[in-house]
Amino acid sequence: MAPLFLFLILSSVFSFGASTRTITNYSFSIREATIKDIKQSIERNQLTSRQLVEFYLGEIARLNGLLKGIIEVNPDALLQADAADKERNCKLPGSLPDLHGIPILLKDSIGTKDKMNTTAGSFALLCSVVPRDAGVVSKLRKAGAIILGKASMSEWANFRSLNAPAGFSPRGGQGKNPYVLSATPCGSSSGPAISVAANLVTVSLGTETDGSILCPASFNSVVGLKPTVGLTSRAGVIPVTPRQDTIGPICRTVSDAVYVLDAIAGFDSNDEATRRASYYIPPGGYKRFLNPYGLEGKRLGIVRDPFFKNVQGLGLGQTFESHFQTLRRGGAIVVDNLQIDNIDVILNVNTSGEAAATIAEFKLSLNAYLQELVVSPVRSLADIIAFNLKFPDLELTDEIDQGIFLAAEATNGIGALEKAALLNLENLSTNGLEKLMRDKGLDAVVTPRWDASPVFAIGGFPAITVPAGYDSQGVPFGITFGGLKGSESKLIEIAYAFEQATMTRKPPSFKP
C-alpha cells in the first residue's frame, strides 16, 4: 500500500511541469469544468486523461495538506489515464460511456480490489484486503472511470462516538471546509464533498445512512444525490445498516451527479436490495431528465415547521423565500405551510427508534463485512473496540470515546426492542412523508439545508441537495428536494431546473 506523501511528491512534479503549462492554455479551465466540458475538450484533442489526472495530482499536492479531503491517492491513476487515452484513440468519437477517462474519488468506506486501502478512516483496517471491488466500483470501471483515490471521511461513517468531530478520522486527520476553514465540512462523506468543491477531482462518490451525503453537500456548496435505498449496490462497502445505507454521487453540478448515477445504478447479485430497486430505473437512464424546464407542472410541498422556522433565526429566511419565487416562476405549483405528521418524533433518533434499530443492525452487518475480508487485523466489532483501547494515542482518538461502538456491541441481534423500533420507523414513514405526498399529490417536498435527512433516511427515500447560497460568514448552504422511493427522475428534473435558474455555486474562498 503506497503512502499518500509519495504521490503528493510525484504529483507536484506533474503540477509544475510542461503538462500543466499546456493545460493553462486551453480555451476552458479544468477548475470548475463539468464532465461535458471535459469530454468536449478531449474530443477536440485539447486535453488527454493523463493531463487531466496530472492537473488534479498537482492540486492535491497544493491543497490537500490544508484541506485533508483525500486520504490516499491511487498509485495506478496515471496508468488508468494512459489506458483511457489509448482506448479512446481506437474508438469512434462519442461511442464511449460518459465517465470514460473521468477521474473519480471514492469515500474510504467503498472497497477497491487494488493497491489502495479501504478503512473507513481507521487504522484498525489498514492493510486489510477486500475480496472484490465494491459493486459500484465494478460499474465505474466498466464505464471507464479513473479511480483517482480514496476520499477522507468521518471515522466509521460517524458511527463510533457522539463526540467525534465531523470530518475527522485517525488516518485522514481533520477535514476542512474550503469555503470557511473554521466551519464544519460535515460528514460522514466529508472528503468527497471537500475534494469536489475544491477542484481536487472531477466527481466523487459518497455514502449515506442519515445525512452523510446531504449534509456535506450543503456545507461545501456542491450537489449531493442520495438515491433510493437499493438503487445503487452497497456490496463491498463498509456498512452501518443495510436498511438505510445508500451510495450516491457528490459533484459540483446536477448533470455530473446524474452521469455518475447512470453509471452506478442497477442490479448487483451481491446486494439483493438492488433486484427490486432496479425496476425504478427509467429506460435509457436518468440523463434525459436534465431538463431546464423541469419545474413546469411539478407540485412542490414547502414544509415550514420546523425546517424553515429554524433557518429564519439564522438570517436565511429571505433567501429561501426568493428561491420559492424561483420555483413558481419556473412553473411549479408550490403548496405552502405543510406539515409531516409526528415530525418531532422522526427527528429524534431515540424516540423514533432509529438509534435502537441501527446500533443492532450495525453490529450484525459490520461483523459480516469483516468476516468476508481476505486479510484483516480485526474480524469483529469487539476486535475494533480492543484495537482502539490498545492504540489510543493516534491524533484525536484519545479524546474520542467509543460510546456508539460499546452500545452496539452490547446488543444481541434483532430482539423485541429492535422489532418494536423497526415497526415504529415503518409507521412513521407511512403516516408521515408518504401520507403527506399522496394526500397533497406532491412530486417532491422542499426543505432547507440537510435538516430533513432523518425523514428520508428512515424510509429509504431519495433526496438531492443543490447549492442555495452563503451565509453572512461565507459558509454555504443548500436546498433539498426529496420524494418517495423511485422518484429520482422527478427530483433530477426539479433540481436541474432550479440549478439552471439560480446558478448559485461559486468556487471556494478558503477563508480562515
UniProtKB/TrEMBL annotation:
Q: Which residues form the Amidase domain?
A: 52-448
Give the range the annotation lists for the signal sequence: 1-19
User: Which controlled-vocabulary keywords does the entry list?
Assistant: Signal
Show the InterPro entries listed in the entry. Answer: Amidase_dom, AS_sf
Superkingdom classification of source: Eukaryota
What is the name listed in the Swiss-Prot or TrEMBL entry for this protein?
Amidase domain-containing protein
